[in-house]
Structure formats: structure tokens, C-alpha cells
Design a protein that fits this description.
Blueprint (H helix, E strand, L loop, with lengths): L2 H23 L5 H11 L2 H8 L7 H14 L24 H10 L1 H10 L10 H14 L5 E6 L13 E5 L2 E4 L6 E3 L1 E3 L13 E8 L8 H10 L5 H16 L3 E4 L2 H10 L7 E6 L2 H4 L1 H14 L5 E7 L8 E8 L2 E10 L5 E4 L5
Parallel strand pairs: 1-6, 1-8, 2-4, 5-12, 6-7, 8-9
Antiparallel strand pairs: 2-3, 9-10, 10-11, 11-12
Length: 356
Amino acid sequence: MSESTGSLLLLDKTAERFRYFAGKIYADRSPLYTNLALRVAEDPELVSLAASAQEKAALPNLFFAAVHLLLLKGEHHQLAAFYPSLNNSSRHYDYVYPYFRSFVLEHREEIRQIMMTHSVQTNEVGRCAVLVPAFELVTAQTKRQPMAMFEIGSSAGLTLLWDHYHYRYGNGLECGDPNSPVKIECSLRGEMRPPIPGQLPKVASRTGIDLSPIDVNNAENVQWLRALVWPDNQKRARQLEHAIQFVKQAPPRIITGNALELLSSLIDKVPEKAPLCIYHSFTLTLAGGKPRENLHALLTKGSKKRDLFLVWLEWATDSETPLVGLAEFSDGVKTEKILARCHSHGEWLEWMNDSG
């Protein structure tokens, strides 16, 4: 294959990633990014810039967040008028692309640098609402003893403190601390009612593991988290702010490193009587298939010493929506079931398992 053919294939692949995100990730959730992603996909110059970070996960999110970051930092440009996070006046997204294109080309080197030095982080606190019923199933199977919990890909730790938030599921279903500054709403779909607990499961210990954790006391890190929130998703942005303030007051323990290398020794240190629950949300989606297989192999081996539970929230490539699942590892055997379908940011939940 010639170098030029290889370059064309790379550009085609990158353009397809933007089309995919427009149709599956941004559709019905971000009119701004849906519009921009479709236009970027047809623009070889911008596709080429984005492709310089081809190895990065969730590339369209990364590209758009780099632009958003520069605007949040105060770069003056007419593009800001189209970003609700900066200016609540304009929703005329059909007219945004020429301004977006000029901004990107004016700042192409800065955008390239941001993409090469940053990563997309999973910090959507709303996802806790769809994890809670799964945690309730685990605690119901373990005599409601306080759980030892490990989160893979905890980033800034916002979803590590899930039991300190308040949840409203509609139809009068609520749980958690009503005085919590972090209030999460999640509507219910379908016929089955999920196991919403009267009282949230108790946590004995919590530990996050992340390749590059985000320190919420670092102003630049926080600004990057804000940049990752889609500009026309202001409810998410407000929720993020409340969660960041809460985590600053009660920072959880987060270990830097690869979960596949650290988990075994961490599990060994947990008292045997404590039920052990590991969870991840939109972490292995970004990593691809192999890490999931390796994780399950590690937990299967570990379960020869003690029972283990794994709660996961991921978006499989063959699924129209993200899925919530629960795997139990006992005596070297894995039993896994799909519990629910849900919105990628936890805005709705459709329970599918009769365990509820």
C-alpha cells in the first residue's frame, strides 16, 4: 500500500468516526455536535487535523473538547455565540459551521497539542443512577453487608461517591441523601421496575483505579472536565459542578495505574467477610475488547479464593443503547446477565431483568 493510499484510508476512517458519533452518540442529545460532526466528516482539512490524534479513544469527543477548552479559556471568536456554555443567545446551529471552521484553522496547532496531551475522561455523574439498582442486587445477595468497592477508570472520582448523592426516578421513587447537593434525575421506561432501594447499599471501603486520575483541586484539570461536557448540555454541566465541589470536600482514594496489574493485590487486602464489588462505566468501551476478556479472566481466577461481583455500564458495538450488566464470579465460574438498557448519561433506565 502506498503512503498516499494509507493516508486516504486514515482520513476515510476518521471521517467515519465523526459520522458514527453524529448518528449514534450525539443524535437527540447534542444538536450542536450532531451538526458539527456531520460537517467535519465532509471537510478533509479538519478531518486531517483530527486524524493526527487517531490513536486516541472517542476521537470526535476529544476534538470538540479541545475547541471547547480554548473557548472556555477566553479565546475571543464569533463561534462562542453558538455555544450555550458561553452564551445563551443562539441556537441556530445550521449557521455554526463556517465560524467553527475558521476558529479551528486559526488555532490548529493549539488544538493538535490539546488532543495529543489530553484524553477523554468518563466523569458523567448521572450514570450513578443506573448503577444504583445493580449495586442493590449485589447487596441483596450478600446479606446487605457493607461492600468493598473498586472502580476501574474512576478519573476524578465523581462516580466513586455514588452513595452520597440523591436520586429521583419518577413516580415518587427516590433514594439517597435528600440534602445532598448532587441531585440526579433518571426516568424509568418499560414495564419492569428496577430494584430501587429504600436505603442505599452501604460501602465499607472504596478505591478508584485510573491510568491518569484527575485532581479536582487543579484548576486546569477541572476546566478540561468542563470542556468535555457538550456545550448544549447545561444540566450536565451544573451537575458536574456540584459533584466536583462535593469531591473536593470528601476526596476518595484513587490509585494511579492499570487495573489489570493492580486489582489482584488490592483484592487480596480486602477482609474476607466483606462483599467485594468491582464496577466500571464507559471505561472498557473506550479500551476495546481485549481488556474486558483479561479482566474477566483475572476475576474468574480470583474467585477461587472468594466470591466477586462485577457491575458494568458499557456501550457494546452491536447494541442500540448502552447496557448495564452484572457478573458474579464464584469458585472459578462466571455467571453474567444483562440487567438494563439506559441512556448514555443516565437520563433514563429500562430494566430488563426479573431480578428486580
